[in-house]
Amino acid sequence: MKTYLVTGAAGFIGSNYVKYMLKKYHGQAQVVILDALTYAGNLLSIKDEIALPNVVFVKGDIGDYEAVSKIFKDHDIDYVVNFAAESHVDRSITNPRLFLETNILGTQNMLQCAREAWYRGKDAQGKNIYKENTRFLQISTDEVYGSLAKDYDEPQPLHVSQELKKVIGNRHDLKTYGKQFFTEETPLSPRSPYSAAKTSADLIVKAYHDTYGLPVNITRCSNNYGPYHFPEKLIPLIIKNILEGKKLPVYGKGLNVRDWLYVEDHCKAIDLVLHNGRDGEIYNIGGFNEESNINIVKKVIAIIARIMREEPQYQRLLKCPLETIDESLIEYVADRPGHDMRYAMDPTKIATQLGWYPETTFAIGIEKTVRWNLDNQDWVKSVTSGDYQSYYEQMYGNRQKI
């Protein structure tokens, strides 16, 4: 039975990954969760998981050398999946130092602790030997590449290579707003304190592989969406504001384009890279779902309005008249500094090497995401009100292993 150390697992992608992994391996994995429970970490997202006998929760910081070293010693860790990061661009503009401390120094501390715990000596050539079948997986972002040109005002059909068609089949839902895409060879060009900190962390991970031979992989994903998403990000914020009858803030004219990846598809990719990725390799994980921010907002408005009309039991969630749910809620606000125009990932490498591709189309994924938010308003309210902190205090006091 393998033991996984998953950092930041009370956050959005981390919580979804833990759920996916525990379901897939049916108790055949030990999981240690390390999370500092900052504003975006919520134990309610993983309350069922931390009640399992094969899951241990540790409240702590990835930058705390003593705490992390103790975890490696006490639990004989095989795999590290490092989600823990400060990740909101707007917050990084306001407080860049926090992002540097967590994303750079925290990652270096995790790498050092893994290196010390897994080290087994040197071979005849003087190369470091580590515990067999171990891996440090750094979860990164497409934002390390900077920005791509937006060549088309309206999306055009995306034509993929024959090599890629062998994996994904003949899909007719693929579209693009540009001619270029991020590959693993694209030069790094971060444009915000957040993306600069993630870029630095990636380089440190690579340095630990090149210098010390530590077994690592890096994955860079496009924008995730789905359940348990903290409601400061675009899609959950729009859903929340619509239900409350509030204005929907959109930067600039809303023409910035992102590649959207359903979070469960991302979790499947992480699992594949962790177990089958080539040592030291970087893998781009994209959703094949390019969409402009303004179109995202309009789609969410339309979905919620339709659900409210067709399934009136949901109208109890509204704090405004149903007839006011329309595009008049959109409010254009001043663009943020260094706002990247377009992100678009080329996932050919992970598709052809590991057989992964994004299974969830945006039409299906966005409907599932809206419905999850409607059906889990207690979770949303706990996050926005801070009530989940009382849940932590209760759990921390009553469960020895937390």
Automatic annotation (TrEMBL):
Record-linked InterPro entries: dTDP_Gluc_deHydtase, Epimerase_deHydtase, NAD(P)-bd_dom_sf
Q: Which organism is it from?
A: Sodaliphilus pleomorphus
- Record-stated family: Belongs to the NAD(P)-dependent epimerase/dehydratase family.
Q: What is this protein called?
A: dTDP-glucose 4,6-dehydratase
Q: Which residues belong to any copy of the NAD-dependent epimerase/dehydratase domain?
A: 5-286
Which GO terms are recorded in the biological process aspect for this UniProt protein? nucleotide-sugar metabolic process
One Gene Ontology MF term: dTDP-glucose 4,6-dehydratase activity
User: Which SUPFAM superfamilies does this UniProt record tie to the protein?
Assistant: NAD(P)-binding Rossmann-fold domains
Which PANTHER family is this protein grouped with?
A: DTDP-D-GLUCOSE 4,6-DEHYDRATASE-RELATED
Highest taxon listed in the record's lineage = Bacteria
